[in-house]
Amino acid sequence: MSDATTERSRTGEDGVLQRLSLLDRFLPVWIVAAMLVGLALGRWVPGVTEGLDSVKVGETSLPIALGLLLMMYPVLAKVRYEEIGHLTSDRRMLWLSLVLNWVIGPALMFTLAWTFLADQPEFRTGVIVVGLARCIAMVLIWNDLSRGDREAGALLVAVNSVFQIGAYALLGTFYLKWLPEWLGLGGEDVTFSTWDITKAVLVFLGIPLVAGYLTRRIGIARRGTDWYEEVFLPRIGPVALYGLLFTIVVLFGLQGEAITSDPSSVARIALPLLVYFAVMWVVAFEMSRRAGLTYERTATVAFTAAGNNFELAIAVSVGVWGVTSGQALAGVVGPLIEVPVLVALVYVSLWLRRRLTFHTPTTVGSTR
Hints:
single chain, 368 residues, two-stranded antiparallel ribbon, 17 helices, globular
């Protein structure tokens, strides 16, 4: 490897955190701060818990619903829906991503949930729900930092977004009801209806998906792609984080008593998630490399497979089991674990880029 190449690689690894925005770089700090604020409000401010829990339509808390919709809309406005059809040019990558995201990923999370949380049905269900929600947001950041294929990342995110609308409720029923019964594990301690999951997906993914799609089509038609990508998206991007932090404050405000009385619960939820991110990324990375993908597309498939859509998981858990449920708490703990783990995996990916052999871009037509 030449000195110039070595220098570029070293600079790429050293600059990972510097290339994150201030908000993204300190995301774990903001999440922890939001948790502490929520716990403080719920524990020491009289009437806050009752007030937040009283503003609802049916079983859906309006403050939580507002936060969830704010989380989802900016992410879905970034998806390049018009380029989904281009995926057919690399069917090997598409099929590999579909198998990893919708077969291996949920099955792995199901196994880990029953291994680590067999005696905690609410947490176990919440972790499985996380495993069913494929990442459509932060994965674009991890993909870019690891020098993955930017266009392929956007396309896989688009496919996952559309696929989740149709498949999420069915997979939820399979992994929460049918499979435990077939395996003799029992599942009677978890009650839900398929329609409840479908309704939560349609409201908290369907509405922002339609809004994001229309925003993109109208915005590009009226002002052009450059304005939309370079001006509009950066303006609305932070709204997703604000929505996430607002939702965490409300959730922890409502769950403060349960958390402070049993802090080990957070650690128990974190363990299977930690194992999941590491195993899923390694498996996806090696399968992609062995399948003959370039480094850029190998990294893209690995981060797309390892990341999860916690916004949707939180929305489904809140909509189906309630804002104070253990399932909702499992979803909230997710981003606290995901962010530092995937930042570390970005460094691992860049390190492997220099030490392993990949197909060259000219062989299969990588875009970067």
